[in-house]
Amino acid sequence: MLVRKAARILVGALGMLLPLIAVAAPAASAQPQVLARTLYYDVSQAQEFAADWDRAATNWNNSVANVKLARRTSTSGVNIRILADDGWPRAYVTSLGNGTVYMGREAVLQGYYRPRISTHEIGHILGLPDRRTGLCTDLMSGSSAPVSCRNDLPNAAERAEVDRRFAGTLAAADVRAAGYAGSSTECYVY
Asked: Is position 158 annotated as part of the catalytic site?
C-alpha cells in the first residue's frame, strides 16, 4: 500500500514537471540547417589584381548564403584558378563552381572598373550567364554597361539565382577541385 501511494505521488510530481521540462527544451527546427558550399580560389597567378579578386569574393560572400568563396589553403585544393593577361577578361567554366577566370588588362586599360570585372567573372563560375542589358545595376551586363559604371554587387535576381543553384544536397559538402577532369568548358567574355 505504501509503495502504491509513493508511486502515485512520484507519477503526479513527474506529471507536473513534464510541462516545465518541455518548455525549457529548445524547439526543434522544422527546416534542416543547410551548410554553405565552400569554393576555394587561387590568386597566386593573379599578378597585380589579387586584391580585386579578394573583393569579388567578399562581394559574393556578403550577397549569398548557399556558397562561400575562400582563398586556397595548403590543404584545400582549388575550384577557381585566377590568372591575368593582356587580353579581355573572361571565364572558362568547367562545371558549377569550377573553372578559370582571367583579369584581362585590355578592359582595365579601357577604364572598366576592376572590382566589377572580377565580381562579374566569378558570377560566371557561380552559374550566371552574360545578360547584355546595358544596365549598371545588372552585374552580369558586363561590358554592355557604361565604362563609368562602378557597381560591383550582384542585384537581387542575380543573388537569388546563385543561391538557387547552390541549394540542396551539394551545399552540404565542401567541394574541393571537382570539375576539372573530363568536363566540357563554357567560355564567357566580359
From this structure: no
Catalytic position from the list 48, 121, 158, 161: 121
CA atoms of 73 and 70, how far apart (whole Å): 9
**pLDDT tens string 44-88:** 999 999 999 999 999 999 999 999 999 999 999 999 999 999 999
Q: How far apart are CA 104 and CA 87, in angstroms?
A: 5
In the chain, count H helices and then E strands: 5, 6
Please classify residue 61 by burial: count the beta carbons closer than 10 Å to its beta carbon, then call 0-12 exposed, 13-18 middle and 19+ buried.
Answer: middle
Burial class from Cβ neighbours inside 10 Å (0-12, 13-18, 19+) for residue 85 reads: middle
Best CA proximity match to 182, nearest among 100, 98, 101, 94: 94
Q: How far apart are CA 67 and CA 40, in angstroms?
A: 11
- The per-residue pLDDT for 9 is 64
Q: Does residue 43 carry a pLDDT above 90?
A: yes
| 69, three cell numbers | 568563396
Q: Over the stretch 168-181, which tens digit does the pLDDT of each residue have?
A: 754 444 444 343 33
Cell of 10: 512520484
pLDDT tens across 114-164, in order? 999 999 999 999 999 999 999 999 999 999 999 999 999 999 999 999 999
